[in-house]
Prior knowledge:
Elements: E1 2-6, H1 10-15, E2 17-18, E3 25-29, H2 35-47, E4 54-55, H3 80-85, H4 87-94, H5 97-113, H6 120-144, H7 146-149, H8 159-162, H9 167-189, H10 191-211, H11 218-238, H12 243-265, H13 268-274, H14 279-282, H15 284-304, H16 313-336, H17 339-362, H18 369-386, H19 398-411
GO biological process, one term: heme A biosynthetic process
Transmembrane segments: 97-114, 192-211
Membrane topology: Multi-pass membrane protein
Amino acid sequence: MSYLKVLHCSLCRKTGIYGISSKSLLFKIGNGIPIQQLATISTSHCWKSKLPLISQTPTSSSGKNKNVPQDTRVWKETPTCDIRNNLGHYCMMLSKFRLTSLVVMTSMAGYALAPAPFNFTTFALCAVGTGLVSSAANSINQYHEVPFDAQMTRTKNRVLVKGLLEPVHAISFAAITSASGLSILYFGVNPLTAALGAGNLVLYTSVYTPMKRMSILNTWLGSVVGAIPPLMGWAGCTGSLDAGALVLGVVLYSWQFPHFNALSWNLRPDYSRAGYRMMAVTDPALCRRVALRHTGIITATCLASSYLDVTNLWFALESLPLNLYFMYLAWQFYKKSDSGSSRKLFKFSLIHLPALMLLMLVNKKYWSSSEMQEHKDVLKLQDVNKLPESKRITVLPRGPVVAAQETDIRQN
């Protein structure tokens, strides 16, 4: 037979609530009373007390617990009014606002570089529609990756991970933005642009997102996703895709590799912890080689753009120092393979792309389709003039001959 003296319940001690009851309870144990039953009796006694609740930080009399930090956080449910007051900010976080802004910028560059008359209304609708589709894709991406984002330092503060929004909010936001964005592109721009946007949405959410945990090929697929927005801008302006759109697509496709490979290099522990199959984790040497290789492809594409009648020769000369420095940073990253060189390459990639798009716009060769057609007519005329007179064919106008035949028929 033994006795147990309970001064306060364990729940009160754990939560830091004191002053509930000053009574000391003496329990007699030994007759088969389980410990859980004693805890229940102690807890019910404390909560039935009429004394006011006093919350304070407990002070330990023993020297052992002096340096033990006390957790004073209070867990509470996020109220609905908090969502209403911060709805705009949460929507921006769902859409990955900075990434979406970069996507919209490349789409606008594709529209501005296209050799067709500039229409501000179509230009604005193309930009808005592209931004809405990109926001939907990013929201669905976050919905699928909540358990993995929680394991990464870079993504652990996203709205779904922190519980600021529920999954149903992300799906609703994606449904609204995708439907409105694709409708704007289809009815306000043209069906080709809407088809490119819908295809990119499916590619990003249904193929690229799950592939990130299966194969390093996700990086190549993600680069295709990043190369489509400038094609959407070009198609929005001209209604078709030609050699100029191909130049823009190749530049954006190759730019993704030094940009993302440099970013992922310093995030290898995070990606490894979350189970993502990235080049920087599975094959670091390949990661560095691919980054260097594609800076060379960007340089070659910029030099060839003047021969494809997208830009003039000045663009090849003006973009060469920018691209050569980009290659130099990629070479340093390849040789040193440290965090410093990867960080320099990543930061310069954020400057390189806007600067390159600006140079392409300034050195655009044709500002309208009529100028391109006039240039083609001049080239054809020059080719005809080079032929000897014996090989030239004279084509008589059809109108007067037809008129003469009609008058002859009337006379007969």
